[in-house]
Amino acid sequence: MNQHELMVRVLIDAGGRAAECAIPRGYKGRVADVLFAEDDVIVEVKSLTTDRANEPEVGQAVGEMFAKSTHLGAPVIFGPVAVNLHDLDPRVAANTLRIVGRRVQDVTKSANDQIKKTKIALDRPNALGVVVLITPPFKLDRKSIVWTMGDVMRDGRCSGIDLVFLVETPLAAPEPDAHRVDSFLSMHSRADRGLPIHLVEAIDQAWGRVTGQFGVRADDEDFHKYGATS
């Protein structure tokens, strides 16, 4: 079972159903993963299988961007070096995240397209659109992922998405990190639209049943204290 399958299984255990089972016969377009019909919630699950932050070509692209941004205070790089985003000019840091997080932005756009088309196919124009991004504890940390997804959703873009549900876990990861066992789940609403509390609790309980990890509530700002990549 891969991470995408794991998350879909959790959502189905929480009371959802495969959205494709509700699609009218003859529909040929893209479909999101899970429908919570009674709560009018459509969910698309996306997963990251590679850590772009560790790919040489990504490092090269960041270096080239730095070379073009020295007027903004970007560092001049000679050979491999670790750079702290917090030490960069905000504009340079933002462009760095856009390069490193390009895959995150791509899957966000794809999820938006699937959710929108599913809303039309099911005649649920006001359904809450949720994208779940499940990822191993990669070098691209949780806060950077949330910022990157928010960046591609700015100014009304990706309007099919109302809520981002981020799951960082070593479970079912393509390259499990042996010393990591904990998972971190957080929801980030757009405007005032969020999941009904009973559905949040149902997903929380389903995660425990499916994975054996019965967790505790904590502020996501404190996740780093417990080992999250943020």
Q: Quaternary status of these chains?
A: single chain
Main sheet makeup: 6 strands, mixed
In whole angstroms, how far apart are the ends?
A: 26 Å
Strand fraction equals: 5-15%
Shape: globular
Could you explain the architecture of this structure?
It is a single chain. The chain is of the alpha/beta class and 230 residues long. The chain is 35% helix and 14% strand. Strands 1-2-3-4-5-6 form a six-stranded mixed β-sheet, sandwiched between helices. A hairpin with a 4-residue loop joins strand 2 (34-36) and strand 3. It is globular and about 55 Å long. The relative contact order is 0.16. The mean pLDDT is 90.
In short:
The protein has helices at about 5-15, 55-65, 90-100, 100-120, 140-150, 195-210; strands at about 15-20, 35, 40-45, 130-135, 165-170, 185-190. The chain has about 230 residues and is an alpha/beta fold.
Strand and helix layout:
Elements: H1 3-13, E1 17-18, E2 34-36, E3 41-47, H2 56-67, H3 90-100, H4 102-122, E4 128-135, H5 142-152, E5 163-168, E6 184-189, H6 197-211
Parallel strand pairs: 3-4, 4-5
Antiparallel strand pairs: 1-2, 2-3, 5-6
Helix pairs in contact: 1-6, 2-3, 4-5
Descriptive key words:
alpha/beta; 6 helices; 6-stranded mixed β-sheet; 35% helix; globular; 6 strands
